[in-house]
Amino acid sequence: MTGFFNRLFPHPILTLILTIVWTILQNDVSAGMVVFGLILGTIIPLITAAWWPDRPRGVRLGKFVIYTVIVFWDIVIANIEVAWIVLTRPNAKLRAQWIVVPLDLRHPEAITILAGTVTLTPGTVSSDLSSEGHSLLVHALDAENPDEVRDQIKSRYEARLMEIFS
Amino acid sequence: MNTELIADYATAALLIIGAIFALVAAIGLLRFNDPMKRMHAPTKIGTIGVGALLGASVVNANTANDGSFHELLIMAFLFVTAPISAHFIAKVNLHKRDCDTPPPPRQDETWATLQAPDDDPKDKAAQTS
After folding, report:
1. How far, in Å, CA of A37 to CA of A23, rounded?
2. How far apart are CA A141 and CA A102, in angstroms?
3. Is residue A57 part of a domain?
4. Which of A31, A41, A166, B25 could form a disulfide with A15 if both were Cys (CB 3.0 to 4.6 A apart)?
5. In this structure, are A101 and A148 located in the same domain?
6. Is the predicted pLDDT of residue B16 greater than 90, yes or no?
């Protein structure tokens, strides 16, 4: 039974996302539209499964929701902080610098999410990956102590992503 | 105070917040002095500026019984794409050596953008012939 389920829904989360996106696009939460969204959400992952062989399995949705909430909150705080820096800090006093973040994550999808999170949160933009993908290069707009920023990224975001993509 | 009035005030407040953040993003883009710093302002503040404007749109449309949640999708796609464009701008800066050279990574040889391409035997054959 589970084997049949796995074959019919090779990527259940993608199915869920496609259904929700379709329903919002139609702007109409009627049974017909949800069913059609489910049909699309079943067919598209089935067709594209062959092109995504190493997809992450066992993603923990509950933890991912908590992660999203934390990131949203951080984005709001980050924006106010950066806006304050833009308006008050002269160029000469900005301590812009590179920060190297060694990565424990190995899933490409997880690293992508981490890089996106880093870009959207306080004063940091992820700029490059090392040639073998073991480190992330982050540019900080105004960092007093680069080690502190690095440790914050590792403990606040990477540790949670490790749990989600375990 | 009826709900319509509250919704009007909420819409106005969200519009003003969004406009202020967009303005700050533009100021940041103009006033920083090197490309890497410039990138910070629009990628971050721009997203919340647009987010607040879209929030105003949601509140306004839903009080007029013309509810629409397309804004949620716009916001979701914006949050997915903004970091990627920032990443590519950063990569171009690194590639053109427009910024300070970053410190080397710990485990690997170098950063992906700075890595010299492997010698392609076809190129060599083309040069010698």
Report:
1. 7
2. 19
3. no
4. A41
5. yes
6. yes
The residue written with tokens 């940041």 in the block is: B28
- Please identify which residue in the block is written with the tokens 């949670």: A160
Instruction: Find chain B residues with C-beta within 8 A of A27's C-beta.
Output: 67-70
Are the C-beta atoms of residues A139 and B57 closer than 8 Å to each other?
no
The predicted model scores a pTM of 0.81
Assess if residue A106 is contained within a domain: yes
Low-confidence ranges of chain A (pLDDT < 50): none
DSSP B113: T
Can you read off the two tokens belonging to residue A57?
């399995």
Q: What is the reported pLDDT for B123?
A: 58
The verdict on A45 and A74 lying in the same domain is no
Give yes or no for B19 touching A (CB within 8 A).
no
Domain that holds residue A39: 2-51
User: Would you call A53 exposed, middle or buried from its count of C-beta atoms within 10 A (0-12, 13-18, 19+)?
Assistant: exposed
Cα nearest neighbour of B18 on chain A: A79
